[in-house]
Amino acid sequence: MRALVQRVSQASVSVDKIQISGISSGLLILICAMQGDTSETAKKIAKKAANLRIFPDQDGRMNLSLLDTGGSALIVSQFTLAADTSRGNRPGFSQSAQGPFAEELYEDFKEACSELGVPIQAGVFGANMQVELINDGPTTIWLDQN
Known about the structure:
Structural class: alpha/beta
Strand content: 35-45%
CATH superfamily: D-tyrosyl-tRNA(Tyr) deacylase
Number of domains: 1
Helix content: 10-25%
Radius of gyration: 15 Å
């Protein structure tokens, strides 16, 4: 799985110009299921994201995790994180997991975050979504679990 984790002061997802979910302080997690991923992969990357120490402590140092701060996660499926741009100018997405299997892994990731105690909101798998965010820092971390 691949995840792009952004520390945000707020983020929301809209579908057809209607906001369907949103969070205040926390993480926006764009997640992509890849070929060869399993439910175990989803659990590992969820644990990594929830425990990533990228929130400031009382001294302003990145020392606290999402679990430490009690923040929420907005989880959005994004197969384009699997883009292969090594040949030409048109990205290829053959490394992303396909259809129902990809959706199952997305659901596994959301469930794993919830089981860790992270309050979650989410986008709609496969939908054309508009994501708005205020990146806090800015702090953006790439997680890759093969």
